Amino acid sequence: ERGINAEYGRMVPWYFSPYPQELCHLPVIYICEFCLKYLKSKNCLARHRMKCKLFHPPGNEIYRKQNISVFEIDGRKNKSYAQNLCLIAKLFLDHKTLYYDTDPFLFYVMTEFDQHGLHMVGYFSKEKESSEDYNVACILTLPCHQKKGYGRLLIEFSYLLSQVEGKLGSPEKPLSDLGLLSYRSYWSNAVLEGLIQFMDEPAPEKPPSLTIMELCDRLCMKKEDVISTLQHLSLIHYYKGQYVICLNNEILEQHRKSMSRKKVRIDGKFLRWQPKDWSKRGKW
Q: Count of CB atoms within 10 A of residue 133's CB?
């Protein structure tokens, strides 16, 4: 059984990734978890770690709350790291094709801190200039960190960036099967939370109704994602010649139980980031 070893454990690949030919025949390749350099043996990795000065991803730390940090990495300035990150992602995403031309992309790597350093748990990438205002090009939680809530945190963070940019965001389509499940869960919770917040607003300040576009603006979500989520939750009904959104106590109770299990959330107060206008920055 072939696999990759990083210091935090062994992972078995799901798909082919174009690592150099001399490594492809090996049962295991070894990866430095901080710079993502790939090596052919455990001894090579040990020698590399004696020389490698990194204990966190390169780039700028733009978010830190408790033991969770996010680093922004420019695919042009940190090309080697970005390419190695794409090679790892290709092992677990069958539709991923990018792994060499990283210049047009920014990478947002989420880490978990302990006494040994800041360890990558997942990442997402986005285009510096997206004509469709996509806020995610590719997203991955490492298999050894899945089912811990990091996928939701990455999605939540991507929408926080969209909020700061003053844009409505959406991930590039098509989504993988796992990606669609993660986004469906996030969108469902976000839409319900937005509707509940609207209902809980004091009467003098609350407008008499909430339109789909107003809900989109509150959530920084594209219209098609909001509508598909409302349909998925069966919240849209036709009443007296118009479509209305109906919430019942059962849905509200399910949402409250779901959110009570999510102990860690992204907190915008801890973001230290300003969006760049890449159209004015020449060739990135």
A: 13
Active site residues: 172
pTM, two decimal places: 0.91
Q: What angle do CA 255, 259, 262 make, to 5 degrees?
A: 155
Neighbours of 252 (CB within 10 A): 14
Quick one: pLDDT at residue 97? Answer: 62
Average pLDDT of every residue of the chain: 89
**What is the residue whose two structure tokens read 């430095």?**
32
Tokens of 159: 């929408």
pLDDT in tens, 204-213: 666 678 889 9
Contact 15, 4 (CB under 8 A): no
Tokens of 229: 């989520």
Nearest to 266 by CA among 165, 153, 151, 149: 153
Tokens of 19: 């690592």
Largest CA distance in the chain: 73
Alpha-carbon gap, residue 284 to 273, rounded angstroms: 18
Residue 33 DSSP label: T
Phi, psi angle pair for 163, to nearest 5°:
-60, -45
- CA gyration radius for the chain? 21
How far is the C-alpha of 17 from the C-alpha of 22, rounded, in Å?
A: 13
Looking only at the bridges linking them, the beta strands covering 134-136 and 170-171 are parallel
Cβ-contact 252, 189 below 8 angstroms: no
Least confident of 6-15, 45-54, 170-179: 6-15
Nearest to 150 by CA among 171, 124, 173: 124
In this prediction, residue 176 carries a pLDDT of 82
* pLDDT tens-digit series, residues 233-254: 999 888 888 888 888 888 888 8
